[in-house]
Amino acid sequence: MTSSFSNLSLAEPLARAVAEMGYESMTPIQEQAIPVVLTGQDVMGAAQTGTGKTAAFSLPLLQRLLKHESSSTSPARHPVRALVLLPTRELADQVAQQIALYAKYTKLRSTVVFGGMDMKPQTIELKKGVEVLVATPGRLLDHIEAKNAVLNQVEYVVLDEADRMLDIGFLPDLQRILSYLPKQRTTLLFSATFSPEIKRLASSYLQNPITIEVARPNETASTVEQRFYSANDDDKRRAIHQVLKSRGIKQAFIFVNSKLGCARLARSLEREGLKTTALHGDKSQDERLKALEAFKSGEVDLLVCTDVAARGLDIKDVPAVFNFDVPFNAEDYVHRIGRTGRAGASGLAVTLVSGSDARLVADIEKLIKKKIDLEAIEYEEDQPRGRINDGRRAWREAGETGDGRDALPAAPAAPRRERDQRVGREGREQHRGFRPAVASRDPFFEKPYEASAAADATPAWEAAKSAPRSSVSANIKPKRKVAALFKAAQPETSVQ
DNA sequence: AAAAAAC
Question: Tell me, what CATH number does A146's domain have?
Fold first, then answer.
């Protein structure tokens, strides 16, 4: 049994880098995936968050690049032989840095390209030639079209966070990129979450794949303590203060569903005396990288973020994750809470649940196959509460560039009376009685806090779980889209 | 109900 990196017979330069980084024993996904990737077969790999998937594919990939000379007859001295695709810029940056460390003592070159940064330095690096290219889809297509990147010699393609890469928002770009790659190649897919639909879609991009599942897909890390607290919207910041204080937590990710909500919440928490920064897609790339760096260095304690930060980011010893908003997709819940409890450390995940979130929490419970109990928080009197201010003023105060128009909610679609009536009825039936006791709409600090919300929350909670799914449920739409795409999905066309 | 990814 090879459970130690030293038993792997990695090429000397790789073994040296690994030893220098202090890696000794392998995690289960590494133990299982590395030998298979070394054979050059296609892989679909699922393992919990924070268990070392990046090393699980990049080490054997580099080993193969070292062992097998390029079969290229092209004059390019360093054709791109391996392509690694990721869904966010920060993640691409992180994975590229990790690969560069592993490849440090080899002659293999690697670089990363992603949007929001000047094309020129990236172009210079690409023209020098790299064997390993890490990228986000949009910017890679730009470089392909500008003929800065030639991908007709690619032997390996990795889709990290594969289920996201195959999702409706990314699939068109992904298909275009794949159409530039040779058909004869190895394809590796990794993620902590795979839905049955995505698995089927994924299999159309794989040839005789080996499936590696360390534990069940969608399983949350056992090192994360998951808590669900009942809190109406005006009590949510108060809940954060209370949990931070009572558990003695210094640092945390706080996830919010919208960019505007993210900017507002960050501003409010900052005002309430917490060292906070915001990370979302309407910030400049410079601001995004700075926010992440400030959190990593401990300069700020709270990173208020959208799902741009939900996946893959590996920051050591983050003690807690808050879901200020319950995520729309249950898979995102698994990824969000995976920012804590990494590499065997312990972590706390707190989800703040308001009256209208019942369906979403029921979806999470079903996905992670763990019973969820909704609890009440015992507040100390001095925690701030109340509605946070809104509009463009908040946007400006949050230090955002622009006027915030981009982040304002889109105008609602034209109402359809029949649908609206049905939705209204179903919504009322579904959530009847679930509404917390304190339906506080009080302006900031006006009314004293009243009784706890959870007392009457549980019965309706149970009811909501077994209630029929509403036709407006967020999960229906993506699934339908995926199914349609699956029907339409065609494996990539051959090289021009 | 949203976010992400290109200029």
Answer: 3.40.50.300
